[in-house]
Design brief:
Elements (H helix, E strand, L loop, with lengths): L1 H20 L3 E8 L10 E4 L5 E3 L5 E7 L4 E5 L6 E4 L8 E2 L4 H6 L22 H6 L8
Parallel strand pairs: 1-7
Antiparallel strand pairs: 1-4, 2-3, 2-5, 5-6
């Protein structure tokens, strides 16, 4: 009888210990903008850690090893960052608000032409004679 009681106590201790250390969970959800359009490339990170992920093209994300006391930070260029406490939730859907002030700071210039006096930064030029004078016939050269 005493041996059986020792086995029961030992089993309970093991179960309680495993339960205490298994407090992490997987969180998933969807990140959209104000119009309900999914946002791909949103950074989702557990505050104060390196545990993080990015949303896929459809705005979905999944992040593992998250505790109930953790906070998730959602950041995206041109949007106001949001921090949400996990709590008992396993699905957290987020709607990010546009940050009009940050949008004024983002400038994207692709292929095009600008007046040289209007461009700030480094400018390099190459002449067609310079390109023709190179002897390389393969990319590796």
């Amino acid at each position: 009888m005493i041996i059986r009681l020792k086995h029961v106590i030992a089993t309970l201790v093991i179960i309680i210990t495993q339960t205490a250390f298994a407090q992490t969970k997987t969180i998933s959800g969807l990140v959209t903008d104000q119009a309900g359009i999914p946002l791909g490339g949103v950074t989702v990170i557990v505050s104060g850690t390196t545990n993080g992920t990015s949303t896929d093209f459809d705005g979905n994300y999944t992040i593992d090893n998250v505790k109930a006391t953790d906070k998730l930070d959602f950041t995206y260029i041109g949007m106001v960052a949001q921090t949400i406490t996990v709590g008992a939730k396993t699905t957290i859907n987020v709607t990010l608000q546009e940050d009009a002030q940050a949008l004024d700071e983002v400038v994207i210039v692709g292929y095009g032409s600008k007046k040289k006096s209007l461009v700030t930064g480094a400018i390099s030029s190459i002449d067609s004679k310079d390109i023709k004078s190179t002897s390389g016939q393969r990319v590796e050269q």
